[in-house]
């Protein structure tokens, strides 16, 4: 479905009434049974301002923020959130505000979702990934040294998170 609607408005509007189904599907799947529903949603929304403004609101965005809090940190949900922030070079202010409120406005959510930085013994900035199961900080370098950024996708999550913050700030 993602490819059927890519850059084809007629199919995008045909699938639009079913966006809640895709959202529900992406909430119920994980890495073991991923049907790429969030990729379909992102593809459906990425170039369609009308759909972004009419179909996506703080409740939809909140579902994906909750998924990031409840499940392993996954770049695919961050990429979907990123797709809600702008459309073809134009910011979607209501979605940017919703993400600010949901992610950055809640100290607990901010602590859980955002990659932290600290200073090493020499006073240099160091990016620390938090092991979300154990709660202990791990330097970025360790993830980079493991094959393809580590099996848990923390490097991909981090780069997607940087992109999301850039999108939240876009055109402000």
Provide a descriptive summary of the structure in words.
By secondary structure, this protein is mainly alpha-helical. It is 58% helix and 10% strand. The strands form two sheets. It has a three-stranded antiparallel β-sheet with strand order 3-4-5. The longest helix has 16 residues.
Keywords:
10% strand, mainly alpha, two-stranded antiparallel ribbon, 3-stranded antiparallel beta sheet, 172 residues, 11 helices, 5 strands
Describe, in short, the structure shown.
The protein has 172 residues and is mainly alpha-helical. The protein contains eleven helices and five strands.
The Rg value, from CA coordinates, equals: 17 Å
For the biggest β-sheet, the strand order reads 3-4-5
Shape: globular
Number of helices: 11
Helix content: 55-70%
N to C succession of SSEs = HHHHHHHEEHHEEEHH
**What percentage of the residues does DSSP assign to strands (E)?**
5-15%
- Report how far the terminal alpha carbons are from each other: 33 Å
Low-confidence stretches: none
Task: Output the structural class.
Answer: mainly alpha
What's the rounded overall pLDDT mean?
78
Major sheet summary line = 3 strands, antiparallel
Number of strands: 5
